[in-house]
Fold this sequence. Notes:
With 243 residues, chain A is α/β, with parallel strands linked by helices.
Amino acid sequence: MKATKIFDNKYQWYVFARDPEKKEGIIDTNQYMIKTDSGTMLLDPGGIEVFASMLTAVLHYVNVDEITDLFASHQDPDIISSLGLWEEALPHAKLHTPWLWEGFIRHFGSKNISFAPIADEGGTVDLGEAHLQFIPAHYLHASGNFHVYDENARILFSGDVGAALEPEGAPMYVEDFNEHAEKMRLFHQRWMPSNRAKQDWINRVRSLDIDIMAPQHGRLFKGDDVKRFLDWFEKLDVGIAIA
Amino acid sequence: MLAKTKVNSTESILITAATVTAELSKVRNIAKEMSIAVMNAKAISHRAGEVALGFRPITDFIDEMAQDVMQLVIKISREAFQLSQMAIERTHLLNTEQQYRRVLENAQDAPYVDSLKPAVERIQKQYREYQEILQKNIVRLSLLLDDIQSSTKGSQVLSTTSRVEASQAGSFSSSLVVVAENLEQATDKIRAHVKSSQNKLDNVLEIIKREKL
């Protein structure tokens, strides 16, 4: 699995993606890791199918017992179905996840891990030098959903918002926004159910200072492409499956 | 190949546990029928009066045996369910161990690969513990099945005695003879179901004993 460092100043952000061992028919996912001197967090650590590749990649950057926190933006299998496999190696780690999904996520073979449920209005957690905010993103697409904002790194981990379904080996960053927008259109129109929720999220995110918007599928947005995305998303009508 | 055998052994445990539960369900039904037949026999011997006095303690004994069997069935079914749960948890450990070993092979050049080794050792230790507990649980299940066999052991003698007592019950004799015959058939069926369950448990125990990580 390809690892890319996207921030490095006192602590690091990594994205792990484009797994060449991924089985056909399984959606490609971006897993993230924030490594600090006093703790490491995996964000949306992925499904069972990518577990071995993901852990192999992680071991190039951190001792497994230094992973102190997991974050699951919502309950989907591509986000966190690997939980039962991770927890055998991380008996003391904490899982931050929407309170709404705790009982559901426990179905992924979880026995020992400590849950840190996130209230609907969000919250914060300090991971060494990184001060992380859990930004509400309910109904985008899951009914309980959070993104993670790092004010110091100016990175917004945006879960399924900004996701695109692309062929294997796509670049890590958006290069031509207009061209990329077409790859995101159906995903957002079909997976995101609510225009009201979309607008609420856009209003909240416009107030954040963001250098990189990092979704869980597809490419990352850098610099002006973040604003371009927000403008594009604002105009997009979502929830189109209702006849 | 060995891993595949282990997964198949989990299937064997699950199938065995389900089969034992199904066999015990039949045992419970037979015991229930015995219990109802005994109530009937009690009524007949009551109507028969003095001539069937010797039959009454026999009906009490059969009733007690049927109740014992039904209680044991509940207990064994619960244990069989726990056995299935444990087999599933063991499979999870097995899958995890396989995934971790794959990581150890693929991450040989990773600077932090050694940090995974204690977790692998922990899983292997847990797996061995599960193996031991599984074996103990299967043996315990088999011993509980022995208890059913013991409860029904005296039924043949009882059946002979029942026939003798039934024959002295005058005009009620034929009805009570039927009860005595049914008792013998019912306990034979119970013993056959229990024996079949024990054979399946013996087989699965042998499969588990042969496995090593």
